[in-house]
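Summary of Year 1 activities. Much of the first year was spent building the evaluation harness for sequence design. The harness presents a backbone, in tokenized form, and records the residue chosen at every position. We chose the following record to illustrate the format because it has been used consistently in internal testing since the harness was completed.
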């Protein structure tokens, strides 16, 4: 095409693809071009506005390191990470939800019943559940990788006060598919807002808060990996998670348990908790491959 116009540029773009282009790449790039070209026309984008957008992307690249991927955060606050999760979740398996940037790959293995909170103070939370398949059968030997914030709202990789393994651990389900541990309440916290994503949130009058949650990655041979989160039903940010991670089946109640009822055995804290505590029951459901 010699004379390119606003009317034919999308078709021209698609016609430029080489004959051997992989069909899925062609489908994705054609659709992306259609939407981007329409976006430019629909908003009547000015040169200044486009330059601003490119500067934001450059800043996103400049601030990105191995520890902080601002592109992932950008995808999260735009709702793209969550949309990809939602359209790829099977209706009878547990919903997936954002991974976030604070998972560590070498979390320590933990015995069922371990106390996760170590020296941290706060109400004891007992978390227990069974990893199941979509038919309701327990899955023994599944790995359940869990992480959360400390009471100051920071993950270990953000906080000089914590060692890197603090509030991170990997459990292996027993012959009944069960995992269990104790911890303290995770807290609501803000996503990093000192970079381009913070600027974007500011410009659109949005806050950077997430409701409190426990992160899970559950794996078992023969099943799809599940990356998800569990939220308490009383968190003030449940209806306005800045990364759109909340799903109905991921909201649980922290059930208050009276003083004197903590299990007498099976937990590192057995015999050490006289006061009231809360419990969370969460059964991750995995989809077979
Ligand atoms: C998190 O839950 O750890 C998280 C998710 C998305 C962006 C930032 C943090
Ligand atoms: Fe998180």
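For this record, the design step produced the sequence shown next.
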């Amino acid at each position: 095409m010699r004379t390119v116009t606003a009317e034919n540029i999308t078709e021209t773009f698609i016609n430029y693809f080489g004959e051997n282009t992989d069909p899925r790449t062609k489908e994705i790039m054609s659709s992306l071009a259609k939407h981007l070209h329409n976006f430019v026309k629909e908003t009547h984008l000015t040169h200044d506005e486009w330059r601003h957008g490119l500067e934001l992307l450059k800043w996103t690249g400049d601030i990105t390191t191995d520890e902080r991927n601002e592109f992932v955060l950008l995808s999260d606050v735009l709702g793209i990470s969550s949309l990809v999760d939602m359209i790829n979740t099977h209706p009878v398996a547990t919903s997936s939800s954002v991974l976030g940037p604070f998972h560590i790959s070498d979390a320590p293995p933990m015995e069922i019943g371990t106390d996760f909170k170590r020296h941290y103070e706060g109400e004891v939370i007992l978390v227990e559940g069974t990893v199941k398949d979509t038919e309701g059968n327990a899955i023994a030997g599944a790995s359940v990788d869990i992480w959360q914030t400390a009471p100051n709202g920071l993950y270990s990789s953000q906080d000089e006060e914590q060692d890197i393994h603090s509030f991170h651990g990997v459990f292996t389900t027993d012959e009944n598919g069960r995992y269990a541990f104790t911890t303290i309440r995770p807290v609501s916290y803000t996503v990093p807002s000192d970079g381009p994503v913070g600027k974007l949130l500011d410009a659109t009058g949005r806050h950077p808060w997430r409701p409190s949650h426990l992160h899970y990655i559950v794996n078992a041979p023969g099943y799809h990996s599940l990356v998800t989160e569990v939220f308490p039903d009383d968190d003030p940010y449940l209806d306005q998670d800045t990364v759109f991670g909340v799903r109905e089946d991921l909201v649980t109640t922290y059930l208050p348990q009276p003083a004197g009822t903590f299990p007498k055995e099976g937990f590192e804290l057995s015999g050490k908790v006289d006061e009231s505590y809360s419990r969370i029951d969460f059964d991750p459901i995995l989809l077979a491959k």
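Helices lie at 9-15, 23-43, 47-63, 70-77, 80-87, 196-203. Quantitative recovery figures across the full test set are reported in Table 2.
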